[in-house]
Amino acid sequence: MSSLSVNHLLGIKQLNKNDIELILNTAEYFKGVINRPIKKVPALRDLTIANLFFENSTRTRLSFELAQKRLSADVVNFSASNSSVKKGETLIDTVNNILAMKVDMVVMRHSSPGAAMFLSKKVNARIINAGDGAHEHPTQALLDAFSIREKLGALKGKKVVIVGDILHSRVAISNIFCLQKMGALVKVCGPQTLIPKYITSLGVEVETDLRKALEWCDVANMLRIQLERQDIKYFPSLREYSMLYGLDKHLLNSLSKEIVVMHPGPINRGVEITSDVADSKQSIILDQVENGVAVRMAVISLLAGRPVGE
Questions:
Q1: All domains in the chain, ordered by first residue
Q2: Is this structure's pTM higher than 0.90?
Q3: Is 87 among the residues known to form the active site?
Q4: Can 60 be counted among the known catalytic residues?
Q5: Of 87, 197, 233, 257, which is the active-site residue?
Q6: Residue 90 appears among annotated catalytic residues
Q7: Does 59 qualify as catalytic in the annotation?
């Protein structure tokens, strides 16, 4: 199989196991490409891609832009903060104006859950969801899965704990869907106030004791506290959160086995993770960043109908 079962990447929920495997295997090829002296392929030189970011982003936007340029696509960047959206223009009008300029694909980040799905039904272009509110962040889950597979050799049977602000995290939800489809076991860990009530209905166990969670897992994915999405206080203070759910070198070294440490970024050093852990040999955080470009190249080329080698 060299094509996806979907026309858009709206969320991991819409992908099947074969889709995920195809993306990860294609990303493996592209990782080889971006480590060559000449890091570009001419695969998409006739395509124009618009990056629409209605929410602030640095890493994801740069990663997508780099992926598009490595594939030789023409790239248009749009930021809502200095656009007609500020003057009251609707999402559909904004996108239709951009599509009138003959854009083939849209990468969109938006604060409203379901924005990418809504857009996919209204406009004639391939849509990639780069994060919609607290709903999904599919390319982050795919690059996390790729990074785990690269480090441990497989995903099936691996134990992954996602630690932190599960309630507000689109990364957590997409990771849960992705890892489970690939046969991994998933737990979440954090204060009860930051664990959504529905999480057990996804077949995910909840552990509120960080040490127990770390002793169980092969991989710990440490999430940041998303203060910008919190309208009430979910815990007394960042200091108290850090004492109970922060990962430092002392705790990491005291475990009975060596685990892999991940973080989707941006890191709040000294809150969910200390610098000596983030920069340790057990951390694959910088690998995740590098793999993000390869995974996004894979997603873009597959949605464009340009499988590897064509």
A1: 12-136+289-303 (3.40.50.1370), 138-288 (3.40.50.1370)
A2: yes
A3: yes
A4: yes
A5: 87
A6: no
A7: yes
